[in-house]
């Protein structure tokens, strides 16, 4: 009986320590699932790209436009912003935002997924991750900047696909840039003008003095 109880306790402890194992599965979750891709992107790659981009946006906002954005906090939020998709998969934007009913339903699903993932952590580690993983409709300066970086990553993906002759992404590119412009964030406008054009270049073109 004692061995059985120990075995059951060990199983419960393993469940509480499965969070990082779940994170390693991000590489298996594809994005743009309703679109034909010349190269499939996963949420692990996207999260890294969003983290790099939000760091750039925060530095631009602080350095050139007098902002007071916490760049390191932005990076941490970006790294974990798509974690619920480990359980839900990538919900296509046209479906997620088709109307308020669908939007509210997805928020509930997302919140439930976050709760499930947090249960995979020991009790003493949950609070720090919960603070990073709250749904992105939070209007803090840092989460707003992460939202912009998320869209900017999508825009660059559209550019890459169009460069390969995949016109499937033409409409997505136009709507994503429009959404970025309508955010009225100076750092975003600056990035679009100065730093987006080289993303369209070949490696040789980028290396030219």
Can you offer a commentary on this structure?
This protein has 209 residues and is mostly helical. The protein contains twelve helices and no strands. It has helices at 2-16, 19-23, 43-65, 71-80, 85-88, 93-96, 100-118, 123-133, 141-163, 170-181, 186-194, 203-207. Helix 3 (43-65) packs across helix 9, helix 4 packs across helix 9 (141-163) and helix 9 packs antiparallel against helix 10 (170-181).
Broad shape: globular
Mean pLDDT score, rounded? 89
Helical residue percent?
55-70%
Order of helices and strands: HHHHHHHHHHHH
- Main sheet: strands, sense, barrel: none
**Number of distinct helices:** 12
Summarize the structure.
This protein has 209 residues and is mostly helical. The protein has twelve helices and no strands.
Name the descriptors:
209 residues; mainly alpha; 12 helices; 67% helix; globular
Produce the secondary structure layout.
Layout: H1 2-16, H2 19-23, H3 43-65, H4 71-80, H5 85-88, H6 93-96, H7 100-118, H8 123-133, H9 141-163, H10 170-181, H11 186-194, H12 203-207
Helix pairs in contact: 3-4, 3-9, 3-11, 4-9, 9-10
């Amino acid at each position: 009986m004692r061995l059985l109880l120990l075995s059951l306790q060990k199983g419960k402890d393993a469940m509480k320590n499965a969070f990082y194992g779940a994170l390693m599965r991000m590489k298996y979750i594809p994005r743009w699932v309703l679109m034909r891709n010349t190269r499939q992107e996963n949420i692990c790659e996207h999260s890294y790209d969003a983290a790099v981009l939000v760091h750039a946006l925060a530095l631009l906002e602080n350095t050139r436009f007098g902002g007071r954005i916490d760049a390191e906090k932005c990076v941490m939020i970006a790294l974990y912003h798509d974690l619920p998709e480990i359980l839900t998969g990538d919900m296509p934007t046209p479906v997620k935002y088709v109307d308020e009913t669908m939007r509210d339903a997805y928020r509930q699903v997302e919140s439930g997924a976050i709760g499930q993932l947090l249960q995979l952590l020991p009790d003493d580690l949950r609070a720090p991750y919960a603070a990073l993983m709250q749904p992105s409709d939070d209007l803090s300066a840092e989460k707003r900047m992460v939202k912009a970086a998320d869209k900017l990553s999508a825009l660059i993906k559209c550019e890459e696909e169009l460069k390969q002759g995949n016109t499937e992404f033409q409409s997505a590119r136009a709507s994503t840039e429009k959404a970025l412009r309508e955010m009225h964030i100076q750092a975003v406008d600056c990035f679009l003008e100065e730093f987006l054009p080289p993303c369209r270049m070949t490696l040789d073109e980028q290396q030219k003095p």
